[in-house]
Amino acid sequence: TSLATRASGGEILTLLQEADPLLMGGSADLSGSTKVKGIEGNFEKNSPLGRNINFGVREHAMAAVTNGLVLHGLKGFAGGFF
After folding, report:
1. What is the number of domains present in the chain?
2. The whole model's pTM is what?
3. Which of 1, 32, 46, 57 has the fewest other C-beta atoms within 10 Å?
4. pLDDT tens digits, residue range 32-64?
């Protein structure tokens, strides 16, 4: 069967997150297109265990936050579209 590259990338990211609890990140308001979405729900005030961050349309902030995740020992990922 034929599978879009972004769809297979999303599936692989899910498998990687299932194998590595330190992998956390998200997408700049494009998770529907890029298929980049963390597992275990969204990281929010009431759900601090979620591993997906909804960055919104803030690519520069997304990069800064991802650097901060890595600085503090997590393995960050970020998804954009160009």
Report:
1. 1
2. 0.80
3. 1
4. 777 777 788 889 999 888 898 988 888 899 999
